[in-house]
Design brief:
With 314 residues, the protein is an alpha/beta fold. It is built from twelve helices and ten strands. This is Tubulin/FtsZ GTPase.
């Protein structure tokens, strides 16, 4: 954590890409674009030409396997055939976010190939995968487990969304589309939080080395988001951070924590300090490595309005 001593030019040079793979990945990339998250390059990859056509990304890649519904092995094979093109696509990238469902053939087959290329290029990777519902059947779970084992070995940081957990988080009567919009929103806030602390100037800045210190070799990463304003802002935010539990892993088990505060020019350091202290109290390990930064957003001009994004790992 540094007090405005990182050159703004360095921030402008950060190259970050978001790759959405398969249907879930394309849906998420479209959500990010519609939400107006900038300073990242969007790419989608799919083996289904119709799905690929629905992407709003700057770069849409359709991998033709020659069949309508391909196997994991077929998706992997066609991705490997494009290794040189993918390498060229990823050159110069500092942070690569990959997101996909893991129960289908496309995500399980393609994501490990992209991660292998990124590893060779020494790109820092954050992989976000959705684990299938149990009711999707043995074959789907088998494909997911095969893909997961490869991804775990290759990625720097792994964020797992167990679809089964969605039942405990929201009203089961809610439409499936609304459910995934909730998931998309929290993941979006996590990625945007990392992007903002690396590209925006605040009075307490986080740099690339801080992000890597928290997320390197992190296989149980979680994202929590809390936002509030007014006299009870601290309590409101802590309550949301405790409740927003969509991922595998628990905040109380964290060994490393990155906190990004977004607030207005009239921020109270007392509020920032109280929220940080309360998060520390939740964590069992009192020697937790906790890094925090503040981004000033003029649109947060209401008194004591703060958004808190917590990314933690074990």
């Amino acid at each position: 954590m540094y007090l405005q001593d990182w050159d703004n030019g360095m921030k402008d040079k950060m190259n970050m890409k978001v790759i959405g793979i398969g249907g879930m990945g394309i849906n998420f990339v479209n959500f990010m674009i519609a939400s107006g998250v900038k300073k990242v390059e969007y790419i989608t990859i799919d083996t289904d030409s119709e799905n690929s056509g629905l992407s709003h990304a700057e770069k849409k890649i359709f991998l033709d396997t020659g069949v309508k519904e391909c196997s994991r092995e077929q998706a992997e094979r066609v991705a490997l055939q494009c290794e040189n093109q993918f390498q060229e696509l990823l050159l110069g990238t500092n942070i690569l976010f990959l997101i996909s469902g893991i129960g289908g053939s496309t995500g399980s087959g393609i994501m490990p190939v992209i991660l292998e290329i990124a590893k060779k290029l020494k790109i820092f990777t954050i992989s976000i995968v959705a684990r299938p519902f149990y009711l999707e059947g043995f074959e789907t779970l088998k494909i997911a487990n095969t893909g997961m084992k490869k991804i775990e070995k290759l990625t720097d940081s792994l964020i797992i969304i167990p679809n089964e957990k969605l039942y405990n988080y929201i009203d089961r009567k809610e439409p499936l589309g609304s459910v995934y919009n909730t998931v998309n929103l929290i993941i979006k806030e996590g990625i945007e939080g990392i992007v903002n602390v690396l590209t925006e100037v605040g009075f307490m800045n986080i740099d690339f080395f801080d992000v890597k210190a928290v997320l390197h070799n992190a296989k149980n990463t979680i994202i929590r988001v809390g936002e509030g304003k007014g006299d009870n802002v601290v309590e409101k935010i802590i309550e949301q951070l405790i409740e927003n539990n969509l991922f595998e892993g628990k905040l109380e088990n964290a060994k490393r924590i990155l906190i990004n505060f977004t607030t207005g020019p009239s921020v109270s350091l007392v509020d920032i300090g109280k929220i940080t202290e309360r998060i520390s109290d939740i964590v069992k390990d009192k020697n937790v490595n906790l890094i925090w930064g503040v981004v000033i957003d003029p649109s947060y001009d209401e008194i004591r309005k703060i958004k808190t994004v917590v990314i933690s790992s074990v």
